[in-house]
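To fix ideas, we quote verbatim a fold written out as tokens:
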Amino acid sequence: MSNASITDKEHQTGSCEVLKSGIETLLSASQDIGLDGEYLWPIPPRSLALLYRASAEHNRAIQIKAESAFGGGLQGGGAARIEALCDTGAADLFTSIGLDLETYGNAFLQVIRSRDGNRILGLRRLPAVTMSRYRAGFLQRASMPNGETRKITFTAREIVHLKELCPEGKRYALPTWIGAQGMLELAHAATSYNASFFQNNAIPEYAVIFKGTKVTDQMRRSITRFFRNEHQGIDKAHRTLILSHPEEGEIKVERLTADVKDADFLRLLDAARDRIPVAHGVPPRMLGIMSAGQLGGGGEVSGQLFTFEHLTLKPKRRRMLDQLRPLLSEIGVEPGVAEDGLGDNQIAFRPLDLTPPKDDAENLPELVQAGIVTQEEARALLPALANLSGGSSEGAGEPIARSAPTTTIQALAALLARS
């Protein structure tokens, strides 16, 4: 809200107020530059955070991608140098950064340097919802305990701005799931509309009709004001108009609109649910979504995991390391490729283990005999692998009653029993 003065032809001065709408929508356009040279986000981050809370599938997809891409931590000879700079470990730091990248399309990593600027003392994630760019570097709005907002500025050398791939190529990137924006907003509106039904005591919408009496001007104004100001919007749905009337009059109550069918809302939510995995690149099974025609076998899950790892997660890890390359060079490490082997000064994010549990169980006896897996480690894995493979075995170290092992688990148990 802002105040401004106006002057007419007779030089009479008055004042007026300009009120800005408080309704948040992703479709509203915004100017590029704000106060003090601040570059505004193309979509306010608080609107993106609202959608994060509005959909269980959207929320879960963001969490899965961040955890799967970066939750395994770093590997390679240079990983210890990065770990030493993180307060809670590299896995926690980069998973939090990945969460911001998936939610907002942007993430901000603070580089804490010594006073002379020659040494890097620490790495810290700054929540993307609090950050913005401006001409001299970066700006953070931090909420204070007293309710006020404090502005903190950073130079360009203190912040690494990480971004998702974006065809617009501007100062900020749009999140990768932006194609599902409309469905997410629609699903959120439908859910809020249904919730308002119960918030208003589950009263359906009615029209109040007076018969046998004349409606006064005051009644007409009240009815008009109600439908104009009190009836529109998802947060005002299912309200009822109550008016007083003369005793000789009659009131007829008519349903104002057709019955709202729960199935319509369910179909809308199902349509949004089916599009969210496509926008995120997450297999539906990872979100607990079972589609018609899916068998749900282990081979199907393995295939989806393979696609998820190589088409979604692997590019995210590579892009993260590429954007961090200048910073890593200062620390004395460089990105590497885990499949090709990592050197003493190389790092890479740990990929998902795509080996099915059944294959692990079949290979374990050979790994024990070759000395790759110790007998203690095999004993610890034996109960879990027995459950996964469906085999049965006696406790580790107990003799096998049968003359020859018939399953992989039994062979491993026999091997351990002889040790």
